[in-house]
Amino acid sequence: MRKNYNYTRRKLLLPEYGRHIQEMIDSLSAIEDRRERNRQARAVIAVMGNLNPLLRDTADFTHKLWDHLFIMSDFQLDVDSPYPRPTRQELTASPRPLAYSQGRIAHKHYGKYVERMLRALATEHDPQRVAQTVDNIARYMRSKSYEYNQEHPNNEVIVKDIKRMSGGAIEIDEVALNNLRSDYKQHFSARPQKGGQQRQQQLRQQKNRNQQHNRGYAKNNGGYRNSSK
Fold first, then answer.
1. What is the DSSP letter of 151?
2. Quick one: which H or E segment has residue 21?
């Protein structure tokens, strides 16, 4: 007996509708009477809509069903559709490639916007505004460097990074940077050591055992009595 496996059958263009719908659409092409073919096509559309009854009230649901009918017939079915017939070229058109940014981030732990702000400050003519903005950026750079490396950065490194990212247009005094206080909170905390976690868990277990022992002693022997009375 010859067995009919799916891998030997024709590949389904839209597998979500199943093979029975595909066979119904294939049989439409064999109908010579155009009026009868249109009537049978509308019946197939009704069956396809019954597979997803919850989507009947959505916009363009019937239009989508007719498009799927032509797709499953490999665009060979000749019936009168109430909607414009789709073409193979429209559905297989390649999307327009997106223009992704190819900019390289020199210092990833600072981010790309720090470098943009420093380069924008190079064209600023107000020295007081430049100095105030650079102070805020330096605080931010110190904070992000600590979050990334888990150690306090050297001010000399921050000064060199500011000079490098600004293209040498901004100079900052290391002495003034030493007097700055970081106003940014450190959200990232260092992980505790594995041994410390085990020690804390042992202490909690010992405390729980002591509490259970005390409750059991009070239940069996009564509360402690004051011998002075």
1. S
2. helix 18-28
Residue 81 DSSP class: -
d(CA 156, CA 145): 13
Question: What's the pLDDT tens digit per position in 53-80?
Answer: 877 777 788 899 999 999 999 898 899 9
DSSP state of 8: G
Among candidate residues 5, 9, 7, the one with its CA nearest the CA of residue 22: 9
Q: Is the pLDDT of residue 109 over 50?
A: yes
Distance of CA 95 to the CA centre of its chain: 22
Task: Report the C-alpha gap between 47 and 24 in whole angstroms.
Answer: 10
Has residue 26 got a pLDDT over 50? yes
pTM for this predicted structure:
0.45
Return the closest-CA partner of residue 41 out of 20, 69, 60.
69
Residue with tokens 């007081």: 128
